[in-house]
From TrEMBL:
<keyword id="KW-1133">Transmembrane helix</keyword>
<protein>
    <recommendedName>
        <fullName>Periplasmic heavy metal sensor</fullName>
    </recommendedName>
</protein>
<keyword id="KW-0472">Membrane</keyword>
<feature type="transmembrane region" description="Helical">
    <location>
        <begin position="6"/>
        <end position="24"/>
    </location>
</feature>
<keyword id="KW-0812">Transmembrane</keyword>
Length: 153
């Protein structure tokens, strides 16, 4: 086989591999709202009007800011925690840092819960039933593992 033919064959195989990966990555994974993020799914499932969408977007902005602040705190604590690995006699106990990380993670979960209460509050009475049904799907909707094909759970 000529070198040039071999190179063409490799290019074709790599291109096919990329196409297959692209298709697999963009499969539906059990959601009936293919290609949409949680925001779009919530808007569609709750049938928000334009005013509700505007309110929802404000809630999202505040929620992201609050979560980001707490995520940064966790990151700093994790850096400090794992920095202890390089010290012979750390002055800080790892257990105390782990407890602080746990407390902040608890705060994040509270922020998430309150965010969904805020979303429920902007629902009209006829939408509350849909929100209640959606609430049973929320943990899966925001699970990053749902974006990975064939991830064992």
């Amino acid at each position: 086989m000529k070198k040039q033919t071999f190179l063409y064959l490799i290019i074709v195989v790599l291109a096919m591999g990329n196409i297959i990966l692209f298709v697999l990555k963009n499969q539906n994974h059990g959601h009936s709202f293919h290609g949409q993020g949680p925001k779009d799914i919530i808007i569609k499932k709750l049938d928000f009007d334009q005013g509700q969408v505007a309110d929802y977007e404000k809630l999202i902005g505040r929620h992201r800011k609050d979560v980001r602040e707490n995520d940064l705190k966790i990151l700093k604590l994790k850096n400090e925690l794992y920095g202890l690995l390089s010290k012979n006699k750390p002055t800080v106990k790892p257990d105390s840092l782990i407890a602080l990380i746990g407390n902040i993670q608890e705060n994040i979960e509270t922020i998430h819960y309150r965010h969904f209460l805020d979303i429920k509050a902007i629902c009209r009475p006829g939408q509350v039933k849909r929100f209640n049904a959606l609430s049973l799907e929320l943990s899966g909707l925001f699970d990053p593992k749902n974006n990975l094909p064939d991830t064992p759970r």
